[in-house]
């Protein structure tokens, strides 16, 4: 089985953008982004099919169907 890894932000986007808009909060926003991002690994039966679906021009976001 193949594993697909992706990164997902689990924090609040509203709080993140608020920190980005304030010049003083920009370093805090970067730290918040780094600390709030997790790595998600999924096992797929056919990795080649998923990769070819992701590379196709008609990719809608449902590659693992």
Pick out its properties:
65 residues; alpha+beta; 43% helix
Verbal overview:
It is a single chain. The chain has 65 residues and is of the alpha+beta class. It has one domain. It contains three helices and two strands. The protein has helices at 13-21, 26-35, 47-55, and strands at 2-9, 37-44. It has a two-stranded antiparallel ribbon. Helix 1 (13-21) runs antiparallel to helix 2. The protein is elongated. 0% of the residues are buried.
Low-confidence segments = none
End-to-end C-alpha gap: 16 Å
Any idea how many domains? 1
- Please indicate the percent range of residues in DSSP E strands (runs of 2 or more): 15-25%
Main sheet record: 2 strands, antiparallel
Instruction: Using the CA coordinates, give the radius of gyration.
Output: 17 Å
**What strand order characterises the main sheet?**
1-2
| Helical content (DSSP H or I, runs of 4+) | 40-55%
Structural class: alpha+beta
- Morphology call: elongated
The total beta strand count reads: 2
Order of helices and strands: EHHEH
* Mean of pLDDT: 85
Number of helices, where a helix is a run of at least 4 consecutive DSSP H or I residues = 3
């Amino acid at each position: 089985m193949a594993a697909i890894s992706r990164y997902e932000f689990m924090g609040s986007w509203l709080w993140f953008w608020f920190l980005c808009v304030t010049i003083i909060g920009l370093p805090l926003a970067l730290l918040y982004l780094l600390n709030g991002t997790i790595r998600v690994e999924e096992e797929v039966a056919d990795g080649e099919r998923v990769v070819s679906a992701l590379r196709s021009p008609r990719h809608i976001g449902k590659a693992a169907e």
